Each structure stands twice: as structure tokens, then as C-alpha cells.
Amino acid sequence: MELDDVLPNSHYVTRQSRWIDAPPDVVWDALHSVRLSGLPVTLALSAVRFLPVLLSGKGFGQLHDRPFIEAVPIPRLSSTEPESVVFGGVLQAWRLRGGEESPPLNAEELAGWIRPGWVKAAMDFRLTPSRGGTELSSETRVLATDPDTRRRFALYWKVVQPGSTAIRWEVLTAVQVKAEARSRAAA
After folding, report:
1. For the chain, first and last CA: distance in Å?
2. What is the number of domains present in the chain?
3. What are residue 86's phi and psi, to 5 degrees?
4. Nearest in space to 18 (alpha carbons), one of 170, 164, 187, 182
5. Under a CB-based contact definition with an 8 Å cutoff, are residues 123 and 74 in contact?
6. What is the DSSP string of 1-39?
7. How far are the Cα atoms of 25, 50, 66, 174 from residue 135, in angstroms, in the given order?
8. pLDDT tens per residue across span 105-143
9. DSSP structural state of residue 103
10. CATH number at residue 149
11. Which domain range does residue 166 map to?
12. SS3 88
């Protein structure tokens, strides 16, 4: 599954990538083993963002340490080892307490979702063999379902986009460090 299958058009996009001196299977294992406790920037930014949600009594299940890949705030839609993981869902992230509960949607339902008052979000991690190693990339796409929601989300995005990018860079770096250490140890 590709992001284009889920969200071919978007209002907001971020992309990051990192070349890692390790084969895709080692990078895949590292991606799935990076834990939240090893991501201080992610923990700090997430704590600030989700404090109102936690204070309202929602989201306590997100607090315990677990692999980052399991803590992504939108559902996993597809996983093809060792090539890609695709996430997607609808959110009302700009709302202080997180908004309404997101309905569970598969890729086809997400692609067809048009209910006003939501943003559709999709994100992937893609592993591509490159120059004797692996190019690990991540892309996030967001599409508002109506003009009013787009205006509201635009303000939120201006605030959170730098943090979102920092989180992705931290994850890619953590995966690189883990994967390259494992690859060196195996050699």
C-alpha cells in the first residue's frame, strides 16, 4: 500500500529521509524496536501537546513505554516487511481535548471520508535499498474535509509542524543508530 492509495491529495505535507548503512531487514527491526523512552524530544513534545487530553481523563493508555511504531496516533493500515508501514485515520487534533473519538476506518473508507469537521491524516515509513544500505523515509500528509476545518487546522499546524518534523528526525536518527550498531556487530 502506498500513501497515494490512502491520501493522494493533501493540504499539508512533511517528508524526511535518512540513508542508513544497514540492510532493510536490520533497519526494519530497528524501526520496530525504538521505544518511546529512547526518544526524549518526542516524549517532551508529546507531553506538552497531550496534557489537556490527559487532564480530561482521555489517553492514559498512551503513557506507558512501548515501541514508537505502536504509539503513532493514527491506526496502522498496512505493513509490508521490510518495505513499508502505512498509517491513516481521521482526527480533530486542533481541538484542545482531542475532539471526537475517531471512527475506525480502513484505507478505502479513509480515502472516501468527506464528513466536515475532520482532517484526514496519513503517514508512512518506507525502506528502500540504496547504495549498499537502506533509505528510510517518512512522509506525513493531511487533508481537511472542508474550508472551515482547513482554516482551523492551519493555525494548529503552524504550531505543531516544527515539532512533528523534530519527532520524525529523532525517530529516523534513533533507527539509524540502532540499525548501524546491529549491522556492525553482525559483521
Report:
1. 33
2. 1
3. -120, 130
4. 170
5. yes
6. --HHHH-SS-SEEEEEEEEESS-HHHHHHHHHH-BGGG-
7. 12, 31, 24, 14
8. 999 999 999 999 999 999 999 999 999 999 999 999 999
9. P
10. 3.30.530
11. 3-186
12. strand
